[in-house]
Amino acid sequence: MAKRRETFTTRQPGKAIWTLAATIYTILQLPFWLIYFIPSSFRQYSQWTYRQAIMNKLIRLFLYHSSYVEVKTPIQLEETGRFIQIRPSLDHVYDGLLGDLDVQPTITGGSWYPSPYEDGDKQRVILHFHGGALVIGEGRPGDVDFAANLLVKTLDAKGFFPSYRLASNDYCHFPAALQDAVTAYRYLLDQGIPSDRIVVSGDSAGGSLIVSLLRHIGNHKTKLPAPSAALLFSPWLDIKSSRDPASVTGNRNYDTDYLPANFTGWGAQAYIPAHMDVNSPHFSPLDHPFNAQTPLWVQVGGLEILFDEGIRFAEVMKKKGNRVEICVEPLASHDILLAGNLSGFEVEAEHVVKLAGEFLSTVG
């Protein structure tokens, strides 16, 4: 699998035409939704605020149209501000991830929050991978500021947010993002940060990366010691099923979440190479529980489409002997850590991160 096949709406001028039409359509519809959601009984969930109802609708429209044109987030590795480049490890830590000659470990990068790690620092270091269905998003300031500031301030930690390769770009399907995750983890170890002070964390698709990373670490124990804990916020744990739109539209929480079926479908199709078995543990961790050797904390929103798989993942991982704590934010939609400032769930996001901190206090 190399370059993605283009359609009329994913190449110019079709992409520009669709984007213009979608923008006009949304502007014309907006007055209707602004009035429609005034009565709480007409909102996606009656206990939501007016802002939450409006933003849920707008975010879904944005993701739907972005997926329809398959908007690309170009890879930017310029070292500016807090962003630094990191090179692949030379210590043979990528064994098992080199089966695709098109996809090899390469230079990647990430942003430090609030400042880079320095010798003598005693704080925890949060290695966090952003969400975006593995096709959109960055770890740079501007994209992850809300999540980054919330994590480092609440958890009294330093944070490193990688900008891993996205499957929306050519030759960046699996295992590109996982190779970058391994590079980022090994980078922290090479800075002299003890593994027992590293917490791996991810939201949505970033959560699936964390699970794959932990599996890989378990197979390379001598060169990749296990982190002290893992935090999974609204993790996407059944990538293979997302290729079927019915798995999303038929979800009992579909109406109270902002994830459209074509968004998760685009991510799944772009990420999974045509030559690989879709039942691989990396695409279907729900069906392949393992001993992670790392305490796991899993947060889900009670009204998001990934609620059931998050709960099920916690259950099957517990049966494998893992320590797992589940956190349910009852009225929340998807990924309030990354998007809570947009979706109107800032208070709920602050609450779950505080609970994550309480969990971390019990693991040392």
Q: Brief overview, please?
A:
This protein is an alpha/beta fold. It has helices at 14-36, 50-68, 145-154, 176-190, 205-218, 246-249, 261-271, 307-319, 336-343, 346-360; strands spanning 83-86, 108-113, 124-129, 157-162, 198-203, 229-233, 296-301, 324-329.
Textual characterization of the structure:
Helices cover 36% and strands 12% of the residues. The protein is α/β, with parallel strands linked by helices and 364 residues long. The protein has an eight-stranded mixed sheet with strand order 1-2-4-3-5-6-7-8, with helices on both faces. Helix 1 (14-36) packs antiparallel against helix 2 (50-68) and helix 9 runs antiparallel to helix 10. The protein is globular. The termini are far apart.
Mean pLDDT: 95
Q: Bin the strand percentage.
A: 5-15%
Overall, the morphology is globular
Number of strands: 8
Query: Count of DSSP helices?
Result: 10
Biggest β-sheet strands, sense, barrel: 8 strands, mixed
User: What is the strand arrangement across the widest sheet?
Assistant: 1-2-4-3-5-6-7-8
> What level of helicity do the residues show?
25-40%
